[in-house]
Amino acid sequence: MLNKKITELLNSQINKEFYSSYLYLDMSNYYFESNLNGFGKWFAIQAQEEYEHAMLFLKYILNSSEKVELNDIVSPNKHYTDFKQPLEGSMEHEIYITTAINHIFDEAYSLKDFKTVQFLEWFVKEQGEEEKNADDLLKRFEMFGTDPRGLYLLDAELGTRVFKSPSIKVK
Ligand code: OFO
After folding, report:
1. Does 130 sit in the ligand 1 pocket, CB within 6 Å?
2. Is residue 23 within 6 Å of ligand 1 at its C-beta?
3. Residue 142 is part of which domain span?
4. Res 171 pLDDT > 90
5. Residue with the nearest Cα to atom 1 of ligand 1?
6. Ligand 1 centre distance from Cα of residue 127 (Å)
7. Pick from 74, 82, 61: which is nearest to 151 by CA?
8. pTM for the whole thing?
9. Would the CB of 53 count as within 6 Å of ligand 1?
């Protein structure tokens, strides 16, 4: 059993993670449409990771014998006009998600819900890595992406990304 507030926050996080998946899929589509297939693949894998994150929150709620609430996922509704915009959007979005996860962590800690604290620790670490990835990608784009040859090589490198399942398991 979980505290009501914690259950609400975890349910809201399911929605945020599905939205993250949608947002990254939208970015992926934009790059594929622009023939930057490596960027497209990188963001498609990111979308897949976010789907997995949503499922981890969902399973955690189910395993705690609480009700999962699946709410509407809003459309990303973005219209990118240059290759840098999704990278800036991704950075901004990861900071937003980190804030949301830290907030749940904080609430769980105050309520001495150490089971949830322990579950969230993996996400705190993951967010640190994702912010770093988003920042690296943005900076590397700023360095190399404005030169056609640099953009070509960066795209080729991003296309080598492979999907890895989250290292946390919620049965
Ligand atoms: Fe769900 O990992 Fe970042 O946002």
Report:
1. yes
2. no
3. 4-72+80-158
4. no
5. 50
6. 6
7. 82
8. 0.96
9. yes
Q: How many Cβ atoms from other residues are within 10 Å of residue 44's Cβ?
A: 19
Label residue 126 by pLDDT band (50, 70, 90): very high
Q: Answer yes or no: is 138 within a domain.
A: yes
pLDDT in tens, 47-73: 999 999 999 999 999 999 999 999 999
Cα(33) to ligand 1 centroid in Å equals: 24
What is the per-residue burial (b if ≥16 Cβ within 10 Å, else e) of 141-158? beeebeeeeebeebbeeb
Q: What is the pLDDT of residue 37?
A: 98
Specify the CATH number for the domain of residue 64.
1.20.1260.10
- Measured from the Cα of 53, ligand 1's closest atom is 1
Q: How far apart are CA 44 and CA 50, in angstroms?
A: 10
Confidence grade of residue 169 (pLDDT, cut at 50, 70, 90) = confident
